[in-house]
Each structure stands twice: as structure tokens, then as C-alpha cells.
Amino acid sequence: VAGKKVELAAGGIKIWVACSRLTKVRSAGAAGAGAGAAGSAPDLTVLEGGGAPHSINLIGMRADEAVAETTRAIDMAHMEGLSSIEVIHGVGGGILKKVISEHLKANGLVKGFKEGDPLSGGAGVTVVELA
């Protein structure tokens, strides 16, 4: 479908992918089970090497999970050549934002980071510029 995008989520990372970059595949576990059978693997895969997230949503995660997902997202984005990603951590008590900020300061792939624009989540989002 031209111009349409879908949101894919895996392991706490969410990405938006153009429908034109998706294809239906049959998983090995679903062979003979029919499409959409209970317990079968998802029927979508990203094509053309796409898959690096432009944003990740950490809301509801524990600090250690959030740091691991942020590291994974930064690594993927760096390998794909992205210049930045958004980390959505929410406002809450500010603990998750603080933990992520400390992690970003120590990550060699991070050139810098700043709070999101007010219209894009403000204090609940950190925009990470990649080296």
C-alpha cells in the first residue's frame, strides 16, 4: 500500500516501516498450520536491511531493561547509519530519564542528547544524536 506505514514492535523496540518494505512469509513453525494459527510466528518481515528504530518506547520498563533496550537501539541505528533516535521514557518521577541520561553520557556512539521538542513529548522524550 503506497505511502502507508505500520508500527512493528519487538523486544520493547518499536519502529515505523513503510508497507512497501514488508512481505508476508510463512514461519517454519507454522508450516501446514495455516496463516494466523494460534502460536504461529508473525507473518511480517522487514526488507532491504531496514529495521533500525527511529524511536524506542521504554515506558513501564525497569531501569536495567531500559538501558539494555537503549543500547540495542543505538547499536542498530548506528549500523544503519541513522543520525539520531528518540528515546521515549515518559516523565513520571524522572528516574528512568536520569538512568538513561547517565547511560548516554557513557556510550561512545552518542555524540549528544537533548530533551524532545514540546510538541514531540518534551521532558518525556530524549533525542539522541549519534556519532
Description:
With 131 residues, the protein is α+β, with helices and mostly antiparallel strands. The protein contains two helices and eight strands, in the order βββββαβαββ. The chain has helices spanning 63-80, 95-106, and strands at residues 5-10, 13-18, 22-24, 44-46, 55-57, 84-88, 110-115, 125-130. Strands 5-6-8-7 form a four-stranded mixed β-sheet, with helices on one face. A two-stranded antiparallel sheet has the order 1-2. A two-stranded antiparallel sheet has the order 3-4. α1 packs across α2. It is globular.
Residue fraction in strands: 25-35%
Instruction: Give the strand order, joined by hyphens, for the main sheet.
Output: 5-6-8-7
Question: Helix and strand succession?
Answer: EEEEEHEHEE
Helix-strand makeup class: alpha+beta
Q: In total, how many beta strands?
A: 8
Low-pLDDT windows of residues: 27-49
Q: Total number of helical segments?
A: 2
Rough outline: globular
Q: Using only CA atoms, what is the Rg? A: 17 Å
Largest sheet: 4 strands, mixed
* Percent of residues in helices: 10-25%
Average per-residue pLDDT, rounded, comes to: 76
The separation of the N and C termini measures 34 Å
Topology diagram in text:
Blueprint: E1 5-10, E2 13-18, E3 22-24, E4 44-46, E5 55-57, H1 63-80, E6 84-88, H2 95-106, E7 110-115, E8 125-130
Parallel strand pairs: 5-6
Antiparallel strand pairs: 1-2, 3-4, 6-8, 7-8
